[in-house]
Each structure stands twice: as structure tokens, then as C-alpha cells.
Amino acid sequence: MNAITQLFNIKYPIIQGGMIWNSGYKLASAVSNAGGLGLIGAGSMYPEILREHIQKCQKATDKPFGVNIPMLYPNIEEIMNIVVEEGVKIVFTSAGNPKTWTSFLKSKGITVVHVVSSSIFALKAQEAGVDAIVAEGFEAGGHNGREETTTLTLIPMVKEKIHIPIIAAGGIATGLAMLAVMILGADGVQLGSRFAASTESSAHNNFKQKIREVKEGDTQLTLKELAPVRLIKNKFYNDVQALYEKAPSKQDLIDLLGRARAKKGMFEGDLDEGELEIGQVAGIIHEILPVQKIIQEILADFEAACREKGKFEF
Question: Are residues 261 and 286 in the same domain?
């Protein structure tokens, strides 16, 4: 057992990212049943929908699972109360100050993990009392750090600063990448894009097929004035870039973004007007596979890499 498998009582140190519009109970329970840790993505759910997904996940798996909660939402208090009421044992928080909710959650017996994009925020999360952190590099899809620190540089920098377990995220879709970040100091990995392109992902099939088509250079981090987000380059992305050429105000960007843009793209399948959030690693994702098969491939890849790693000669 390593620090992450021990902390969550799971078989493999593989965590599924709690991605908006991708991470319903079907994906979370499938990852947990396969030996990893599945996360329900609360960021795209109204409070009562979240409650429903938690209850369905409890019926679909007897293994540990958690809920990912971005803290920037206005109904955050209601969401936290639902998590407690439904007996959720693991919560990943992001997009906010970990001091705000960590002590409350831990007082309810909940294991708390916070997502960070820098060693400074990793230290703040540790000081807030979290049990582990996710150190997410700039390669990751969705909302991202402004620092643009890559995963391979972020993990050792964070490792120097903190003593609690580290979960690496951003650009990880294979067992080879898993081995690389664990050598650098991570105790486990969190995968988003690879699981977004799974059979059990709640994303629209149009979006899943688009992930398969992504090549190197087809994603970009943008909208830093609002909240940095990595997107597939589509019509909406091009509209954002055209607006930037006019030196827009923050309000101009907000007006263009509008409401439910991510839902339109990832959940409803509008590949032109939707916000299509995915990581750079999508360039090596070529198949839509069941979660069980994805995890089997990652583990086989990891074990083969472990056997080979001592064979380099210089």
C-alpha cells in the first residue's frame, strides 16, 4: 500500500478527475469498481441533482468514491450540507481558499483533498489541514493555473515544500506518465481527459469523438481574465481570439462567454458554439473505451515500464 491507496482505502493510486459534464455517478462508480477512486463532479450539478448522483453511486458501488466541489459556486453551503447528509467520505475541493471548508468537512469525518497549481498554494492547503493535495500542471484540461507551470516541474517543486501525499494531474493518460510523475515524487495520479473519453463518461458522444480527433497543438489555455481554461480550438475559441484583437474589457469577455457554454459543448454536443474543455494529452487518446479497460491498460503499461526502467545505458 502506498500513501494514496492507504488514505482512500483503494486498490490502485489512480483518481478520476471530477470533471464538469463528464463525471456523473456512472463514471465515478465504474472507476471505483475498477480499483481506483471515482469522483462525482459537483461543478455541473444543481444541489438536488448532486444528491441524486451520490445516492445512485452508493447503489452502483460498495467501494470508496468522492465528490469534487469547486468552491466558487454561490450555493456552496447547500452543496457541502448535502455531502455531509448523504454520508460522503471523501471530498476534493478546488477553485477557492481551502481554509474556508476544510475544518468543517474534517469535523464531519471527511477526508479532504485540495487541487493546486503551485507550491505556494500547496503550502496553504497543507496549513489548512487537508489530507492530500492534487498538484495540477498547465497541460490539464478545463480550469487551470495562471502560472503555466508544467506537471514535470510542478511535482518536484511541491514535493520540496510539503509532507502530505501528492496526487499528480495534468498530461497523464498512460502508465508511462504515471511512473514518470511517481518517480518525481507523486504518490498517485489523477486522470481527467482519459476518463472523459470513456464509455461511462456522461459527456455527449460528439465531444468524446472530438477528443479522439485532437492532435498536438489543438488545445489552448485562454480567458485568463476570467478563469484560465484549456479549450479545444473550435468556432467559439476562434470567436474569443477575434475578440482579444479588439482589446476587450473583462465584461466583453463575460458577455461572449454567456451562460452554460461548457454544458452546450460537452453535455449537449455543440462542437461549434460550446466550450470544449480537454487536456493536451488528448493528442494520444485514440479510442473510447470502458473504464475497466482503461485502468487495465494503464496498469499493464505501468508494470511494463517498471520492469524496463533499469535497462537504460549511458
Answer: no
| Radius of gyration of the chain measured on its C-alpha atoms | 18
What are the CA-CA distances from residue 221 to residues 119, 217, 280 (Å)? 20, 11, 10
Q: Nearest 5°: phi and psi at 110?
A: -95, 135
Domain membership of residue 210 (yes or no) is no
Residue 2 resides in a domain: no
Task: Please give the residue range of the domain that contains residue 55.
Answer: 8-203+282-304
Spatial distance between the Cα atoms of 301 and 123, rounded to a whole number of angstroms? 32
**Whether residues 79 and 171 fall in one domain:** yes
Q: Which is nearest to 154 in space by CA: 121, 125, 126?
A: 121
Number of folded domains that form the chain: 2
Task: Note whether 190 and 107 are same-domain residues.
Answer: yes
Whichever domain contains 199, its CATH number is 3.20.20.70
Q: What is the pLDDT along the chain (314 residues), one digit of tens a residue?
A: 699 999 999 999 999 999 999 999 999 999 999 999 999 999 989 999 999 999 999 999 999 999 999 998 888 999 999 999 999 999 999 988 999 999 999 999 999 999 999 999 999 999 999 999 999 999 999 888 888 899 999 999 999 999 999 999 999 999 999 999 999 999 999 999 999 999 999 999 999 999 999 999 999 999 999 989 999 999 999 999 999 999 999 999 999 998 899 999 999 999 999 999 999 999 999 999 999 999 999 999 999 999 887 666 66
Residues 86, 189, single domain; the answer is yes
- What is the reported pTM? 0.95
Distance, CA of 96 to CA of 92 (rounded, Å): 12
Kindly state whether residues 27 and 84 are assigned to the same domain.
yes
Interacting residues of 279 by C-beta distance below 8 A, sequence separation 6+: 139, 140, 141, 142, 170, 171, 192, 193, 219, 230
